[in-house]
Design a protein that fits this description.
With 307 residues, the chain is mainly alpha-helical. It has helices spanning 3-48, 66-72, 75-106, 113-120, 122-125, 128-138, 145-152, 166-193, 198-206, 211-240, 243-249, 260-269, 274-301, and strands at 51-52, 61-62. It folds into 2 domains: 1-48; 53-301, Orthogonal Bundle (MetI-like fold). A two-stranded antiparallel sheet has the order 1-2. It is flat.
Length: 307
């Protein structure tokens, strides 16, 4: 290797080092903000989970793993964990299915399509408190629209106090959250469908493929990365969502609609057990982190993250 080549290689390496250092300096402000806004609260929550203390004063006692043992052996937390799994995966599954159907319908050409696309966002844009009040009226046991409609249709035997019975409280809450979350999936998947080249669809039709075959063989593989990433986001958001539960059922009747976030909230602000509440939050965060890591590993194996 001659001297000129060695100088050229050294120059390239030097430029790469300088470029890497500049990148670090550019990312440093964002890294500091993330560390302060996210990193510090997470670290403090983990530390608090090893202590017993009251916000009203008194001593702060280090209890080690006692809060975790107490939480994991609690029947109430076990019920909340089961409900969280049903709530999260049930809601996200229905949101995805109906959101995909909505995206396909909104992708068709029809008169007033722009207006309909705007109206579809209303459930997503509705504040949780307003949505909760509206559905409390619809599903009210005595004056609810749904029970009245069932009675008029001769189906009075199906009418029931939806939020007051253990076997219907959680499904009723899931119905509301599904209603609110469908537009998110519909809009995200519709945006992905807009990127599908028309020539691929036309080529599929020329080959004699039906509309069903065209969708699953041509369109769906293209929107699959959006489907998977959007689903991951919704899993994390839904697992941490508790607004409807706190407003409508407060986790009842009994523990029938209690989830981990709601259980942690009541443990902290009703029982004033902040150590136990943060232990619940840390456990949920670890489980969600595991789900996310497995999910991302599957996406990486399929090459979706590289696209």
């Amino acid at each position: 290797m001659d001297t000129v080549t060695q100088v050229a290689i050294a120059d390239v390496k030097r430029r790469h080092r300088e470029s890497g250092l500049r990148s670090i300096w550019y990312l440093l402000p964002a890294g500091v903000i993330v560390a302060l806004v996210i990193g510090y609260p997470v670290l403090r929550a983990v530390m608090l989970s090893f202590f017993r203390f009251s916000p009203l004063g008194g001593s702060v006692t280090f209890v080690g793993m006692h809060n975790y043992v107490q939480v994991l052996t609690s029947r109430q937390f076990g019920a909340a964990a089961l409900h969280s799994v049903i709530w999260t995966f049930g809601v996200v599954a229905f949101q995805f299915v109906f959101g995909l159907i909505g995206a396909v319908l909104l992708n068709q050409k029809f008169r007033g399509r722009g207006i309909v696309r705007g109206l579809v966002l209303i459930p997503w844009a509705t504040p949780s408190v307003l949505a909760a009040m509206m559905w409390m009226w619809i599903l009210d046991a005595n004056y609810g629209v749904l029970n009245d409609l069932l009675t008029r249709l001769g189906l009075a035997f199906l009418a029931r106090p939806w939020f007051s019975q253990p076997h219907t409280a959680l499904p009723a809450l899931m119905l509301i959250d599904v209603w609110q979350g469908i537009p998110f999936f519909a809009v995200m998947l519709l945006a992905a469908m807009q990127t599908i080249p028309d020539d691929l669809v036309e080529a599929s039709k020329l080959d004699g493929a039906t509309a069903w075959k065209t969708f699953w063989s041509v369109k769906f593989p293209i929107i699959l990365p959006t489907c998977l990433i959007t689903t991951l986001l919704r899993i994390v958001w839904t697992a941490s969502y508790m607004d409807l539960i706190l407003i409508i059922t407060q986790g009842g009747p009994g523990y029938a609609s209690l989830t981990i976030p709601a259980d942690a909230y009541y443990t902290a602000y009703s029982d004033l057990n902040f150590g136990g509440a943060t232990a619940m939050a840390v456990i949920q965060a670890i489980v969600l982190l595991g789900v996310v890591m497995v999910y991302l590993k599957l996406l990486s194996k399929q090459g979706i993250l590289d696209k």
